[in-house]
Design goal:
- A hairpin with a 4-residue loop joins strand 5 (159-162) and strand 6.
- Helices cover 41% and strands 11% of the residues.
- It folds into two domains: 8-171, P-loop containing nucleotide triphosphate hydrolases (Rossmann fold, 3-Layer(aba) Sandwich), CATH 3.40.50; 201-282, Conserved Hypothetical Protein Ylqf, Chain: A, domain 2.
- The protein has helices at residues 8-20, 42-48, 65-77, 93-103, 105-113, 133-141, 183-191, 202-216, 218-225, 234-245, 256-268, and strands at 26-32, 53-58, 82-84, 121-127, 159-162, 167-171.
- The protein starts with 7 loop residues before the first helix and ends in a 19-residue tail after the last helix.
- The chain is elongated.
- The protein is α/β, with parallel strands linked by helices and 287 residues long.
Length: 287
């Protein structure tokens, strides 16, 4: 599959982040816990530079516990605060507020020595599309302050949002990068919905997901769809799922578009199981 998506608003968002970085005390980097490496924009490290940062692994309820533990240990070994979160259920939200206050203690102490009264902590939240930024912001603010949706690209421009306590948050639209040199990264982003389905070959994408899940743990597919996948190729597995779920056209042929959407939707909603698609040890070169 050839996946190459870099809309014009992505460059505008990158410029927005760079131009507003001086206005904030820290950066909250939001990752998808199912794909912490693939959902990490490689430009962010360079853009953020030495600014204090907190990594929030959102959707940790959809990733498995083994993956959550290994990725949390990875970031802790780099002395980067990491929080496992589920913005939908408010899990981990309180810890984000606590870490934000810890991250600026020294900076505020210096301000006090200069006679500057402590004001609100200003933070910027960054992350790829569809990683749950708006939902997390709403949880942090305790209200519906930002637009949300299950499609990438809902947030259109920057907006300051007052959170509980003394924190002001600068929200930015999701940002990807110009091209995907690693096909596995591109596929992981597509599997989780970071890339709009409308520009994808949805049937090939579903087949790739079946192949990956079957290689990782075939029991996941067998348990969810009540089928036997032993020695089956991805297309044969898809056919079995389609028949089991009634994705059949009037002429008794397989409705591949319908079953493809079904499989991707059930994976993204966690119905197939709690799945981590990549681990730190699987990544050959990692920051």
């Amino acid at each position: 599959m050839n996946i190459n998506w870099y809309p014009g608003h992505m460059k505008k968002t990158k410029d927005l982040i760079i131009n507003n970085l001086k206005l904030v005390d820290l950066v909250i980097e939001l990752l998808d816990a199912r794909i912490p490496y693939s959902s990490k924009n490689p430009n962010i490290d360079t853009i953020v530079s030495n600014k204090p940062r907190i990594v929030v692994m959102n959707k940790s309820d959809l990733s498995n516990e083994k993956g959550n533990y290994k990725w949390a240990e990875h970031y802790k070994s780099k002395d980067i605060p990491v929080i496992l979160a589920n913005a939908t259920s408010n899990t981990g939200v309180g810890s984000i507020m606590e870490e934000a206050n810890k991250a600026v203690i020294e900076k505020f102490r210096v301000r006090e020595q200069k006679g500057i009264k402590n004001t609100s902590i200003r933070a910027m939240i960054v992350g790829i599309p569809n990683v749950g930024k708006s939902t997390l912001i709403n949880s942090l603010a305790g209200r519906k302050g930002a637009q949300t949706g299950n499609r990438p690209g809902i947030t259109k421009g920057k907006q300051w949002i007052k959170l509980k306590g003394n924190i002001e948050l600068l929200d930015t639209p999701g940002i990807l990068w110009p091209k995907f040199e690693d096909k596995d990264v591109a596929l992981n982003l597509a599997f989780t919905g970071a890339i709009k389905d409308e520009i994808m070959d949805i049937e090939t994408l579903a087949l790739k997901l079946i192949e990956k899940l079957n290689n990782m743990d075939p029991v996941l597919l067998e348990r969810r769809y009540e089928i036997n996948v032993e020695s089956n190729k991805p297309l044969e597995i898809m056919d079995k799922i389609a028949i089991k779920r009634g994705c059949i056209l009037k002429n008794q042929e397989i409705d591949y578009t319908r079953v493809s959407h079904l499989i991707l939707d059930e994976f993204r909603r966690g119905f197939i199981g709690r799945i981590t698609l990549e681990y730190p040890e699987d990544i050959k070169i990692i920051d």
